[in-house]
Write a structure and sequence with these properties.
elongated, two-stranded antiparallel sheet, 54% helix, 4 helices
């Protein structure tokens, strides 16, 4: 399905709303819309490819974090410069970097600042990541995966040999 558009004037066009656009509106704790939303074109394969990348990069990021924890665990602990001991501070720094990497990975799928939008501006934590994974798995992925079949069929229909116009000047 191609997007329809309306020409408003010489330098202005307006796209009509497509049923193939999934828009997730973000609500606050009181159930009121925040004005933020995430938008997915269900016929664009980049979202499934980006999700595939998210899964792989998330695995790498978790492995990196576990490796950092192992390295820190092998070090000798001593009094830190401030409130935390040396090892506690190193763990917190590794966790902070893990969160920064995670945000970047999820934004690759959800769009720029998508994770912040989804979390209503909250920072990443282990509990919020679980929420985000549930939203992706229950609300977004099923709609994207259903459309893989539609995309495949549309491509086959559009580019199959049966749909090519016959030319009289071509010898078969």
């Amino acid at each position: 399905m191609e997007a329809e558009m309306q020409i408003k004037s010489d330098n202005e066009i307006q796209l009509k709303r497509s049923e193939n656009i999934l828009r997730l509106y973000i609500k606050d704790e009181d159930g009121k819309r925040t004005g933020e939303y995430l938008e997915f074109d269900l016929l664009n394969p980049k979202y499934l490819l980006n999700y595939q990348d998210l899964v792989e990069e998330d695995k790498k990021n978790r492995a990196w974090f576990n490796n950092q924890l192992s390295i820190i665990d092998k070090k000798q602990d001593h009094k830190g410069k401030k409130l935390f001991s040396y090892k506690e501070e190193e763990i917190l720094k590794a966790y902070y970097e893990f969160n920064q990497r995670t945000e970047k990975v999820y934004d690759g799928f959800l769009g720029e600042n998508g994770l912040k939008k989804l979390l209503n501006g909250r920072d990443i934590s282990l509990s919020t990541l679980e929420e985000v994974d549930n939203i992706i798995e229950k609300c977004i992925l099923p709609k994207l995966e259903i459309n893989v079949k539609n995309i495949k069929k549309m491509i086959q229909d559009k580019y199959s040999n049966n749909n090519k116009p016959k030319r009289d000047d071509v010898i078969e």
